[in-house]
Every structure is written in structure tokens, then in C-alpha cells.
Write a structure and sequence with these properties.
This protein is α/β, with parallel strands linked by helices. It has a single domain, classed as Vaccinia Virus protein VP39 (Rossmann fold). 35% of the residues lie in helices and 21% in strands. Strands 1-2-11-10-3-4-8-7-9 form a 9-stranded mixed β-sheet, sandwiched between helices. The longest helix has 21 residues.
């Protein structure tokens, strides 16, 4: 039931994963797999994870292998890697189809994604993505806009130089956070609270003192991660992950990130008393995530 985050159930699963060329790294409250998330998920039990939150690799946006070589000093800079649209679509569909098996009925798959610019065009990736998810059985529930206070581009400056109709290119300050849910056989069980005791609900009561502001709306204003704050080239803020974890899971539930990167989702899960499973193909990111999680563990021990 608890996947492989419980020590008593982990030995057989770990051995099987190592045979499949996936290395396993353990933390006190979770596990990170080094390898393709598709192969890793294939070893997990059905209906074992309450919440998945991730930001998948963006089409043609990041060449992670070259980015790691830059971190290692082997390259001065990394270049974007061209991937065909069909190849990218099939890559994601295959993995999110496996994810729907692993998520509990009524559990959530929440995805941070945005349009991508390539060769002078913007690909409406989020809107295509929703259709892909619905085609494999996910129910669309919510669309949340993550608004960043500072733009990373100067697109709006075009109109300042050419103040005429047709020259408007707004600066990009938002990304989408889409909420999908796995259907349940019974409608009254299509949620994550139907089986919780009153005591468990009370232990997980959400602090509403800051709720009536922007948090109650579907536009969340959260500062993005500055380049010097994280080794990953496109990490989302821990605060974004913390809101998702807090709103869509209970303490001791398993939270999973199938494209874990620098571990922001896992860190939020650790901070909020959840168990976690992370997956990534780059060892440098896995090591970085583990170090951050262990630092938080140490701080929690001191405060506890």
C-alpha cells in the first residue's frame, strides 16, 4: 500500500529496480529513483500514490544532458535540443498513462506547463496537453495560473519601439498549473477525503489566515526561482509545490514527482509531513535534491 517508502516492503522492490538499471536513493521519508520514470513507475503498485505534481520537460526548451555538462565544467554553454512534436507527445502520453495506474482513485495529477517558443513561433503546449490527458482517462478539474512578478523577457519593449497596432508582444509572466483527477468507480469516492476520520481531518486542517487574498483565486502570484538559487535551469518555487501538496494531500500520503529535477515537490512534501517518491534521469539533480531534503530533515529534528 505504501509503495516502497516503507522499509519493510522496500527490499524486494529495490532489488527489482536495480535489475532494470534504475538506482535507488533513500531518505527518511521517501525515495528518489535515478532513471526513466516510465521504468520506475512500472515497479510501483496500483493505486498507491495520492498526489503527483510535476513540471515535465518542455518541448525543445532544455537539453538537460548538456546542462549537466555545463555544471561539470565540460561545456561553456548548453544549446536547446530539437525534438519532434509527435515524439514529445508520445513520450508524455506513455508516462502519464502509466501514472494513472499508480495514482489512487480520486487522487490527483497536477502539472505545471507553459507555451514554448521555437523558431519564432509559440506552441500552445498547455492546451494540447489537456486534450492528451483527457484522451488517456484523466478528468480535468482546475486551471490555475502561476503569475510571476518579474518577466524574464523584453517582449513588451517591441511596442515601445514601434507604437502601432500589430506590434504588441506581452512579456511572459505566467505558467499554467492544471489539476487532473483519476476517476473512481463510485462518484462519492471521487475525492481524497471520503475515507478520512474526523480526527485525521482535524490534524490536516488548513490554516486560512492568508486564504481570502489571491490564494482563494485561480491566479497565484509567486516569485520565480532566481538562477543563483538553484542549479536546475527551470525549477519551480517550493512555495508553488507547497500549495499543491497542502491543498491536494493529507499528512503521511505519498506525493510523487515523475520529473523531479532539483526536488522542489519532494522538499515541500518533506516539510509538510508527507512521504515522497521522486524520479529523474540526471544524477546531479538527484544528489542536489537529496542534500536539500536532508538539510530540511536536520532542521526539523532541531525544531522537533
Amino acid at each position: 500500500m505504501e509503495a516502497i517508502t516503507e522499509e519493510k516492503e522496500s527490499n524486494e522492490s529495490v532489488e527489482k529496480l536495480e535489475v532494470n538499471c534504475i538506482k535507488v536513493f533513500k531518505a527518511k521519508h521517501g525515495t528518489i529513483f535515478l532513471g526513466d520514470c516510465l521504468k520506475a513507475m512500472q515497479q510501483l503498485p496500483d493505486n498507491s500514490v495520492t498526489l503527483a505534481f510535476t513540471s515535465p520537460p518542455y518541448l525543445n526548451a532544455i537539453n538537460y544532458e548538456e546542462h549537466i555538462e555545463k555544471l561539470q565544467g565540460k561545456k561553456e554553454r548548453w544549446e536547446r535540443k530539437e525534438v519532434s512534436y509527435n515524439e514529445y507527445r508520445d513520450f508524455l502520453i506513455e508516462r502519464f498513462k502509466e501514472l494513472i495506474r499508480v495514482i489512487k482513485p480520486g487522487g490527483y495529477n497536477i502539472v505545471n506547463i507553459s507555451p514554448v517558443g521555437w523558431n519564432g513561433n509559440r506552441v500552445a503546449l498547455p492546451f494540447h496537453f489537456v486534450s492528451w490527458m483527457e484522451s488517456i482517462g484523466w478528468k480535468f478539474r482546475e486551471d490555475i495560473i502561476w503569475e510571476k512578478p518579474v518577466a524574464k523577457d523584453r517582449r513588451s519593449g517591441v511596442l515601445l519601439q514601434h507604437p502601432y497596432p500589430g506590434y504588441y508582444y506581452p512579456s511572459l509572466v505566467s505558467e499554467y498549473v492544471f489539476v487532473f483527477q483519476k476517476p473512481a468507480e463510485k462518484e462519492n469516492q471521487e475525492n481524497i477525503y471520503w475515507f478520512r476520520t474526523p480526527e485525521e481531518k482535524e490534524r490536516n486542517k488548513i490554516d486560512l489566515k492568508n486564504y481570502q487574498g489571491e490564494m482563494s483565486k485561480n491566479v497565484w502570484k509567486i516569485r520565480q526561482v532566481a538562477p543563483q538559487e538553484n542549479i536546475h535551469p527551470c525549477a519551480f518555487p517550493t512555495e508553488l509545490a507547497a500549495r499543491v501538496v497542502n491543498f491536494y494531500s493529507y499528512k503521511n500520503d505519498i506525493v510523487m514527482d515523475i520529473f523531479a529535477g532539483s526536488g522542489q515537490t519532494l522538499l515541500a512534501a518533506q516539510m509538510l509531513g508527507r512521504k515522497f517518491i521522486g524520479m529523474d534521469t540526471q544524477k546531479e539533480y538527484v544528489d542536489y535534491a537529496l542534500n536539500k531534503i536532508k538539510n530540511v530533515e536536520g532542521q526539523q529534528k532541531l525544531c522537533g
